[in-house]
Amino acid sequence: xxxxxxxxxxxxxxxxxxxxxxxxxxxxxxxxxxxxxxxxxxxxxxxxxxxxxxxxxxxxxxxxxxxxxxxxxxxxxxxxxxxxxxxxxxxxxxxxxxxxxxxxxxxxxxxxxxxxxxxxxxxxxxxxxxxxxxxxxxxxxxxxxxxxxxxxxxxxxxxxxxxxxxxxxxxxxxxxxxxx
Length: 180
What we know:
About 25% of the residues lie in helices and about 35% in strands. By secondary structure, the chain is α+β, with helices and mostly antiparallel strands. β2 and β3 form a beta hairpin. α1 (about 30-40) packs across α3. It is globular, with a radius of gyration of 18 Å. It has helices at about 30-40, 40-45, 55-65, 110-125, 140-150; strands at about 20-25, 70-75, 80-90, 95-105, 130-140, 155-165, 170-180.
């Protein structure tokens, strides 16, 4: 039986990969731009950040980073459209680091997260010789989970009622990527 053409529903085309942005180290001068990014509803929904992050709060952790921390941003002509953090551990956990990231609501699904992930995993593998990179991700953040899996992360655990978000408790996965 032939289905009439007007009954076929197709997925809308995916937005084209974004061109022209650069990945660079974050600086204290990025405090306002990163605060604006962090206060976007979609960005914040996927993170543990509270609403209304101030420029002063952002500037404080940019000026006083944790030892060995690497914070990168995706910069499109002066607009910060994504950021990523790699925080190495110390002592008996110095082989591991924690990762956190987010992408501007208007640029999600356009390759920004992939570029940030590629840059930070290069640092982890080729400069810090990290064996393990860890993260947590809300179980309903399917686009982030796909990005992490594409980059070798596997789910190691399921945290029930991990965080309080938007008026209710939500679950999260613990994911990690182990290098050879």
